Amino acid sequence: GIALWGGAIALLIVGVGAATYAMYDPAGGKNAVRFRQCYNAAAGTDCVLDGDTIRLGVQQVDIAGLDAPKIRGASCGDERTHGIGAAVRLAGLLHGGEVTVSEPTRDQYGRAVRKVEVNGKDVAKAMIAAGVAKSYIGETRKWCGPAAGRSGTDS
Questions:
Q1: d(CA 98, CA 112)
Q2: Is 61 helix (H, G, I), strand (E, B) or coil?
Q3: 139-146 long-range contacts, CB within 8 A, separation 24+
Q4: Which of 33, 82, 98, 146 is the most exposed place for a label (fewest CB within 10 A)?
Q5: Are 127 and 87 spatial neighbours (Cβ–Cβ below 8 Å)?
Q6: 3-class DSSP assignment, residue 128
Q7: How far apart, in whole angstroms, are the C-alpha atoms of residue 126 and residue 108?
Q8: Is 118 helix (H, G, I), strand (E, B) or coil?
Q9: pLDDT for 30-49, tens place per residue?
């Protein structure tokens, strides 16, 4: 009886998990690109390196207009922690629908960047609105210390 009950619960858990995944899968079962985290790896494909950089295939994509706290090379523990939070948020956004990436362009600061959209919505604007990143202003931000702040404003 107990084994049967345990098996039924296990089957229920697997069934609910599969149904939940299918319900929230933006491709509806098609071959959608799934972005995993790769900030601890030297290389990866289709993954989030940090809150403003992804890999699409083997190409690194710096997202236009976006500056997020770093994970690798962070100046302090708070920056790394907030960087991980931004990367998790970015992965969640990328899983929200069809991802499109523009051809590379140079921004006003000379960086090679690409505009990234999910279902036609600008990922940079969504990250800034969520308060996990800021707009890129051409210089390294201070993410550590009392004046660092995390708001999406340019203060």
A1: 23
A2: strand
A3: 141/67, 142/75, 143/69, 143/70, 143/74, 143/75, 143/76, 143/78, 143/79, 143/82, 143/83, 144/75, 144/76, 144/78, 144/79, 145/76
A4: 146
A5: no
A6: helix
A7: 21
A8: strand
A9: 445 688 888 666 666 889 99
